[in-house]
Design a protein that fits this description.
Blueprint lengths: L1 H24 L14 E3 L2 E4 L5 E2 L2 E7 L5 E10 L8 E6 L4 E9 L6 E11 L4 E11 L16 E3 L32 H40 L1
Parallel strand pairs: 3-9
Antiparallel strand pairs: 1-10, 2-4, 4-7, 5-6, 5-8, 8-9
Length: 230
């Protein structure tokens, strides 16, 4: 019995108790629950014209404003170098548009230059979402530089519970390329001008020589007549 008793006590002392302590020291792993994933939510955007694009005449402005909670939208423009923050209204809309034309921008009523376009969307909770396209080049009466506008995609990845915000579009680098003008048919080179002056001078000298010979011949005839009469 004593041998059995000491065997049982040794078993609990050497194996069971240390195993319980080790189990209490180790962290318990819990199964992770499902995580919430972010989804791509469309936001307001001006799709056309693009930043840096050259435009002329009446320009249709294509926008995306079909976002949740839409109440109204306003489209306006301003001069890029204007520091007063003044915007001029182009159009207003009470219906959301999904890649639709919101208004026509009459660029022939303003001077040539660089302009910004702004789309302001008012939501039902009173908040606003602004998005802009910078550096649109109006070129009705001046040379058109070459450029590669950057396309706009009206989507943004948002964190759950966060309100969509507008993303600035980078302005592309513009390389000025002069358009050659047609050749002026009336333009004369220096050699042509010199040749024309030389020909004119020779013609004038010849005329004076002929006129002088004519006068001398006439005087001789008159003198011969006087001598004959005598």
């Amino acid at each position: 019995m004593r041998i059995y008793f000491f065997f049982v006590m040794g078993f609990f002392t050497c194996i069971v108790f240390p195993a319980q302590r080790l189990a209490g020291a180790l962290p318990i792993r819990q199964r992770a629950g499902p995580t919430e994933t972010a989804t791509a939510v469309p936001t307001a955007a001006i799709l056309s014209p693009l930043a840096g694009q050259a435009v002329q005449g009446s320009v249709p402005v294509i926008v995306f404003s079909d976002i949740q909670g839409f109440q109204s939208a306003e489209l306006s423009f301003s001069y890029t170098k204007d520091q007063t923050g003044t915007w001029f209204l182009i159009a207003q809309n009470a219906q959301p548009l999904a890649n639709g034309e919101m208004g026509t921008w009459s660029t022939n009523l303003i001077t040539d230059g660089d302009y910004n376009l702004r789309l302001e969307v008012v939501l039902q909770d009173g908040s606003k979402i602004d998005t802009a396209v910078a550096g649109v080049r109006v070129r009705n009466y001046s040379l058109v530089e070459t450029s590669t506008p950057t396309p706009v995609t009206p989507t943004a990845t948002l964190v759950p519970g966060e309100r969509p915000t507008a993303t600035a579009t980078p302005i592309p680098t513009i390389t000025a390329t002069a358009t050659p003008l047609p050749t002026n048919q009336a333009e004369m080179t220096g050699g042509q001008i010199t040749g024309s002056l030389t020909k004119g001078a020779l013609g004038t000298i010849i005329i004076f020589v002929i006129l002088g010979l004519y006068i001398l011949a006439k005087q001789r005839r008159g003198k011969e007549r006087i001598d004959g009469t005598e």
